[in-house]
Design brief:
Elements: H1 3-19, H2 26-36, H3 46-51, H4 53-63, H5 65-68, H6 77-109, H7 114-134, H8 148-158, H9 168-178, H10 183-208, H11 215-242, H12 249-271
């Protein structure tokens, strides 16, 4: 068993658990961290980088199981109907990104490089700052007045996340805020959208996988997933508490700073230390 790969998997699990739910691009961070730690081995494969997300997904299922469970006997008939309606909105919102993702998957894989990722980090960092500064009246404060139209429009924003470095949560949260959703509703709907989206992406990567999933690789992946799950439990709770009193501006500045750091790092390595 490769101890270095196990340690990398633990670190990447921490990175995934933190960045998947914050609007700062988990894929961008995973690529950058892999580069810093010598991007070789199973932990640098698409299979690892995408399937590890299933660990983070389990955190959503754990924390929001009651809210997302339409079969709960603890709910009234009306509450079960509302839960089903929420699921229909989630699935409808997934359609645009699913279609675009399937059509452009191979092309977007070629864009998974530091130039595209750093540019998207900066562009959407600026977008968050501008949107928060111009944010006006909040019209959607609960899922009771969260319409199918709002869901499909957020799904349209989610299409932007097929570009590496954009951030799935970043695109959906930004879109939801623009559409008048409260920050809490924007974040929660982004969490819920992640369940079918990330399961679908992981399934596609497994089908297209050309990386041998040996017993050792499976153990390394499971370790990363377990770490991502545990870290996600904490991060999701912390984020929901944070946005009760703060907006997303700080994440915008973080994205810009990280994008600039990536440009400096890779430019120096390419042209100065080559």
């Amino acid at each position: 068993m490769n101890i270095f790969e196990i340690l990398k998997s633990v670190l990447l699990g921490i990175v995934e658990g933190i960045t998947e739910w914050l609007p700062i691009s988990s894929t961008g961070h995973m690529i950058f961290v892999n580069e810093l730690m010598n991007n070789t081995g199973f932990t640098d494969s698409d299979l690892y980088i995408y399937v590890i997300q299933l660990g983070a997904i389990l955190a959503i299922v754990t924390l929001y199981f009651s809210k997302l469970n339409p079969f709960s006997f603890k709910k009234t008939k009306e509450e079960r109907v509302k839960t089903w309606q929420l699921w229909f909105k989630i699935l409808i919102a997934c359609i645009p990104a699913a279609v675009v993702g399937l059509l452009l998957d191979d092309y977007m894989e070629n864009l998974e490089n530091w130039k595209v990722v750093s540019a998207m980090l900066i562009v959407y960092g600026i977008a968050f700052i501008v949107v928060e500064k111009l944010k006006k009246k909040t019209t959607v404060t609960s899922f009771d007045n969260f319409t199918y139209k709002t869901a499909i429009l957020i799904g349209a924003f989610q299409m932007l996340s097929v570009i590496p470095g954009t951030s799935r949560s970043g695109a959906t949260i930004l879109g939801a805020i623009i559409l008048g959703c409260s920050r809490e509703i924007a974040a929660e709907f982004s969490f819920f959208l992640a369940v079918p989206v990330m399961i679908g992406v992981s399934f596609i990567k497994l089908i297209k996988n050309d990386t041998p999933l040996t017993t050792e690789n499976a153990v390394i992946l499971l370790i990363g997933m377990a770490v991502a799950y545990l870290v996600s439990l904490f991060v999701i709770k912390a984020l929901m508490e944070y946005i009760k009193k703060h907006d997303f501006t700080a994440f915008g500045w973080y994205r810009i700073a990280l994008g600039i750091l990536m440009i400096l790092f890779f430019t120096l390595r390419l042209y100065v230390f080559a």
